[in-house]
Amino acid sequence: MPDFSVFGGVVAFKTLPRPQFASLQAAIFPIYFSLQSALPVVLALTYPAAKSSSGSSPSGLAGFFAEHNRYNVLAPIVTAFTINVANLTYIGPQTNKIMRLRKHQETRDGKKSFDPPPHSQAMQKLNKDFARMHGISASLNLIALAATMWYGVVLSERIQ
Questions:
Q1: Which of residues 79 and 9 earns the better pLDDT score?
Q2: Residue 70 has pLDDT above 90, yes or no
Q3: Contact indicator for 76, 147 with CB cutoff of 8 Å
Q4: How far from 19 is each of 26, 82, 103, 141, 150, CA to CA, in Å?
Q5: 98, 129 Cβ separation under 8 angstroms
Q6: Which segments of 35-144 are extended strands (E)?
Q7: Cα–Cα dist 27/135, whole Å
């Protein structure tokens, strides 16, 4: 669900001063990734049965883990779950840690991390690390979105 991470984040970035924007992001993203991690579990638990001329397929976890659902059901949901748990437990906390380190470095340097260059070598490294972690998180979030959409298409094909 990229609503906040894509649209809300851009609006907040353009509207709020950087310190308030950083505080908002640090407060929202753990909640966001917690929900994004829980929803694939809900999808697996509520997987609907399907009726066909040859009978019906199981619902819930039995249907979710059924061999014929391995690629179109299991793969996208596990992908989204894994990515969001990674964002929640590792990437997000590492990004927040780098943000705190940048704030301390700003105090030492007497210059904001986003001010025009030149920057100290320590700030250059922190900015590079932040950009890398932010890019990884955003890229993984798009992959999770694509996986969720894939599952949505698969599920919609079953509507009769």
A1: 79
A2: no
A3: yes
A4: 11, 30, 9, 24, 37
A5: yes
A6: 50-52, 55-57
A7: 19
